Amino acid sequence: MNFRSLTQIFSRTRPAPLTYEEYPSIGKKKILIVDDNLDIRKLLALFLERSGYDTVAAATGLEAVSQARMIRPDLILMDLTMPVVSGDEAMRWLKAD
Question: Quick one: which H or E segment has residue 75?
Answer without folding.
Answer: strand 75-78
